[in-house]
Amino acid sequence: MRAPAFLRLIVLLASALGGAALAQAQPLPYHADPSAREIAPSLAQVPAIRFLTTADFPPFNFRDASGELIGFNIDLARRICTQVDTACTIQAWPWDQAANALADNQGDALIAGLALSPENGQRFDYSTTYLALPGRFVTRAADIEQFDPAQLAGKTVAVRRGSAHETFMTRYLPGATIQGFDSEAAALAAVAEGTVDAYFGDGMRASFWLNDNLSCCGFAGPAYFRPALFGEGLAIAVPAGNDAIRHAIDWALVELKESGALDELYLRWFPVGFY
Length: 275
Known about the structure:
Largest sheet: 5 strands, mixed
Number of helices: 10
Strand content: 15-25%
CATH architecture of the largest domain: 3-Layer(aba) Sandwich
Radius of gyration: 19 Å
CATH topology of the largest domain: D-Maltodextrin-Binding Protein, domain 2
Distance between the termini: 20 Å
CATH class of the largest domain: Alpha Beta
CATH superfamily of the largest domain: Periplasmic binding protein-like II
Shape: elongated
Helix content: 25-40%
Order of helices and strands: HEEEEHEHEHEEEHEHEHEHEHH
Structural class: alpha/beta
């Protein structure tokens, strides 16, 4: 998975807004498995965690203007190591080499949005999901309170043409008139211009667009989680069979959620929350 080019500019705005937009965000739902709390890591088995990532996936992992590696995933990797109380390194690889680097024991864990596909499942094990990516509706601000996804007959909903979100609309909400666009940005712009009634698509991507359009538009209706269509979200890959590292990461994710640290990271990097 990769962020479209327009997000690279918007993520800089999100960072600049900082606390000013935090009131728009909501805490993370509980994605981690609470039973992982019972698997306390053995520090003797986890003397260090060598995280691999990439530098081209804002706002998760990318380089700022000074060349420093930053992002939600970078902060999360560091928090995991602190929670486990172990040494930590983070190394950026080109996207097309990162998975092979993990398989070749160049690192202990890959935190870069590697898809939870059957093919990757043959090579790697995964942590629990730490961030799910729901589908969300966006409408003009004046329409948010009255919006009802069960009452879309006669309404036009913009989607990115060929996306899983278009499939969702066709399959589950066939009463709406669906209008396809070549990009999320174009579909969302149609909402702002009033040429469509709503947009349905990836909530995370829409949240960055909303950062720049809060006076116009906002999320409406519930968040839709459909792993079979929208993916199972983000998880950390480890070499198959490396249970010590995986258990340590899972335990740390539960502890970070319980302490509020995971929510704090989410609110920092996603000022307009997509849940």
